[in-house]
Amino acid sequence: MISFESLKELHNDKRYQTYFDVGLFFVLIFSFHIIYTFWKVQLDYWPVKGCVDRLFAWASALLFDQSTWVLDHVFNVDFYTKGQSIAFLNCENWYSHVSVAPECTSLKQWMHWLFLMLIFPGPWKHKAWYIPLGLVIIEFINVVRVVGISLFLIRFPHSFEFAHDYIFKTMFYVFIFLMWVIWVECFLHGKGESKKS
Q1: CA 42, 26, 109, 192 torsion: positive or negative?
Q2: Could you count the other beta carbons within 10 Å of the beta carbon of residue 163?
Q3: What CA–CA distance (Å, rounded) separates 197 from 183?
């Protein structure tokens, strides 16, 4: 039978450290997904539904403004807006639309990141700046996602689901994983930290 002490010994063995870290990463990511889904579907964000709804509305307006600014000032895309929808002429000479709804915000990914980093081991002096930096990067990735889907639809107007579900949604979790890898390699097991322990 496996005891807590034998698991602790395995964890402290550098040969198995990576397996424990990756295992904990996936346990935390999937645990949060289950908790969040239950909170959203079963509890309807109780007891802070009003605050969550206002936060989603604010975040989607922010994302819309950031994305339209990038489309206009960086890529010089000719588009018009109605509400929080962006419409632009595609290569087949008809209009494609991208709507920035509250569900498009990166709030769930922000919470994923917070949950992961608050629970995952590591020095708090680095967490104090690395967690906010991660939130900013996640928001930046979300702007890239909305802009990327828009640019994709200009060239491939029938590919919204593919671009949205497989390319740009996946990008969120790839970047969260990469930021976590940097955390583990540089701050949790990095040379600067190992000298102090």
Answers
A1: positive
A2: 19
A3: 17
Any residues with CB less than 8 A from the CB of 52 and at least 6 apart, and which? 45
Distance CA 72, CA 182 (A): 33
Residues, the chain? 197
Q: Check residue 44 and report its DSSP letter.
A: T
Q: Are the CB atoms for 67 and 147 separated by under 8 Å?
A: yes
Q: State the residue for tokens 């605050």.
A: 51
- Which pLDDT tens digit goes with each residue over 83-116? 999 999 999 999 999 999 988 999 999 999 999 9
Other CB atoms within 10 A of residue 193 CB: 14
Q: At what angle do helices 124-155 and 107-119 cross, to 10 degrees?
A: 150
- pLDDT tens digits, one per residue of 172-190: 889 999 999 999 999 988 7
What lies within 8 Å, CB to CB, of 157 at 6+ separation is 90, 91, 92, 94, 96
pLDDT digits (tens, 9 = 90+) for 127-155: 999 999 999 999 999 999 999 999 999 99
Neighbours of 40 (CB within 10 A): 12
pTM across the whole model: 0.87
Omega before 157 cis (within 30°)?
no
Q: Give the amino acid at 74.
A: V
